Amino acid sequence: MEGGRMLRNSQIIVLGICIAAATIVSSIILSQGFLKVTKFVKEQIIVTGSAQKNIRSDYIVWRGIFSIRQADLKSAYQKLGEDLVKVKKYLIDKRVDEKEIIVSQIVTNKIYKKNEKGNDTNEIQWYALSQTVELCSNDVDKVDKISRESTELINDNVEFESQAPEYFYTKLDELKIEMLAKASENAKQRAESMVKATGNKIGFMRSARMGVFQITPINSTEVSDWGVNDTTSIEKKVTAVVSASFAIE
Fold first, then answer.
1. Is residue 30 part of a domain?
2. 0.70 cut: is pTM over it?
3. In this structure, is residue 12 part of a structural domain?
4. pLDDT in tens, 70-111
5. Which of 31, 177, 183, 195 could pair with 51 as two cysteines, CB 3.0-4.6 Å apart?
6. Which domain holds residue 164?
7. 97 & 218 share domain
């Protein structure tokens, strides 16, 4: 009986030792796993990459305004109609397709006589009429030249004012994809350069966030948190920015 009791005690001791050993081993495995997870979370680098490219506008919008001022409304409308014929002829002579010429409605304003105190009276002194012509074209150089030369119409007794053209780039969607890829590659190169001194290497990209897209004149340094979309220049500079995080191996 006593021998059997001693055997059971020995078995209990051995079992306790096994359980303790298993607990220790499990704790080590779990702690190693936790350390790996912590390492995975903490060992990363966040960088900003950018890419730039010069582009040339491939679409232009230009407007010109011609106006007339006369005391008689009927005569004013007649004169404005004659001026419209002259403006269209001028543009067609410049190799503009008549179908491309957009003519706005006539804007009519009444100008009243002033009294001795400089205040308006109820008596109409002039009728001021104006009309706008607009060209939208892919032939940027041709329309740009017209915008600079169109005041020649003044020599034909047309009171004409040329507005500043607007220049656009129509392939922005394709360009954004190209630029974002280049900005991401630049971010990776910067990350590699930063960790090189530590003897580590860059792993896979964990996340990437696109920044604002800037379209500015070539020599401009303008930057905006909301992005810039320049329409004042034919030659433009496009800048794309990406914020990316990489694992460190």
1. no
2. yes
3. no
4. 999 999 999 999 999 999 999 999 999 988 999 999 999 999
5. 183
6. 59-168
7. no
